[in-house]
Design a protein that fits this description.
This protein is mostly beta strands. The protein is built from five helices and 16 strands. It has two domains: 203 residues, no CATH class; 114 residues, Beta Barrel (OB fold (Dihydrolipoamide Acetyltransferase, E2P)). A nine-stranded mixed β-barrel has the order 8-9-10-11-12-13-14-15-16. Strands 1-2-3-5-4 form a five-stranded mixed barrel. The two termini are 40 Å apart.
Length: 344
């Protein structure tokens, strides 16, 4: 399959899905089912990668069962005006969400009915109230701001609608046959355990190319002899070497590898090698240390959008280069925040 054909196939798969940060929600939870619970909050963890709370749910006969409830990231929902003060320990809540695939008392919540009758809607539609805080309305605007074309690529960018890079990380129905995997890579994928083998367990940071999926702001900073990419997730800092870049073969491997950039008109072209992250995505496709990644960052003339193309070549994993596309938009009111990630 040609790279352009693959990219088009992937785009069609993820247009209708909402980007859920960090571990693959579709791997842990049954996104086709919706369950309802009512109970009292006994513990609250307002944190990345997922806001979590414990709900004590009464059962027939007087017994109480504790459920582990999680939802989207702190970095995401805080930008939607959903703050810690809305939910407190002791609050009686009604929730609806996707149950665990592993018969655990674990729920990925989509709707929360607060004691005051207000409903938090984390994607999808309201279930119980006309008084809502709708996260999806502010999640990913389709268009950026055109007020600052002079800044070009050097500004802070935000995720735009339909901009998730790795659809398999969020889509339970993803067809992996669209990737030109080698026989060995398919065997590795088939043996992947989504609980034990998730490379982001316990807040382990992502490497290249997976970190480029992060759905939070990205700042591109001109530092003269290099460009600094600041990604909010895991407070990641990537250095793109420009003038005086050394030979990648002489650089020790690392999570982010060694990146060298050059300009082609308005486009920043970045070639990265020497990556020892070992993963293409977070759901079972691995990469060897010989993988080479070429990125193309192209801002529009109006400065409202930054288009992104990623080509990954790794003969140990793919029989042909894989090309993915994404984009960011410019929203001047959005700034990078600190990423407070705590293990579950």
């Amino acid at each position: 399959m040609h790279a352009k054909t693959l990219s088009a196939a992937l785009a069609a798969l993820f247009v209708s899905h909402t980007a859920l940060a960090h571990h693959s929600v579709s791997s842990w939870f049954d996104t086709r089912e919706l369950a309802e619970l009512e109970g009292r909050v006994t513990e609250l963890k307002w944190q990345n990668p997922h806001v979590r709370f414990t709900l004590a749910v009464p059962e027939p006969g007087g017994a109480t069962v504790e459920w582990d409830i999680e939802t989207l990231s702190l970095s995401g929902i805080s930008r939607w005006g959903i703050t810690e003060g809305l939910i407190g320990v002791g609050a009686e809540l009604r929730v609806a969400g996707n149950p665990s695939k592993r018969s655990l008392n674990n729920l990925f919540v989509r709707n929360i009915l607060l004691p005051n009758g207000e409903e938090i809607v984390l994607g999808g539609q309201p279930r119980w109230s006309e008084q809502t805080r709708r996260a999806g309305e502010m999640l990913a605007p389709a268009e950026g701001d055109t007020s600052d074309p002079e800044s070009g690529i050097f500004r802070t960018w935000s995720s735009g609608s339909g901009s998730f890079l790795f659809p398999e990380n969020i889509n339970a129905d993803f067809d992996f046959s669209v990737y030109p995997l080698t026989v060995a890579a398919r065997a590795t994928l088939a043996s992947f355990d989504h609980v034990a083998d998730d490379p982001t367990n316990d807040c382990a940071p992502k490497g290249m190319p997976t970190i480029m999926e992060q759905p939070y702001p990205l700042a591109v900073v001109d530092n003269g002899d290099h460009i600094l990419l600041r990604l909010e997730e895991y407070d990641t800092r990537r250095i793109i070497h420009l003038r005086g870049a050394g030979d990648a073969a002489n650089v020790a491997p690392s999570l982010l590898g060694y990146s060298v950039g050059r300009s082609e008109g308005m486009t920043l072209v970045v070639t990265t090698a020497r990556v020892d992250w070992g993963h293409f995505d977070t759901v079972g496709i691995r990469l060897s240390g010989d993988a080479v990644m070429v990125e193309r960052f192209t801002p529009t003339a109006l400065g409202d959008r930054l288009d992104y193309e990623l080509t990954v070549s790794d003969p140990a994993t793919f029989t042909a280069p894989v090309e993915l596309r994404s984009h960011w938009i410019y929203r001047p009111e959005i700034e990078l925040g600190a990423y407070r990630c705590l293990p579950a």
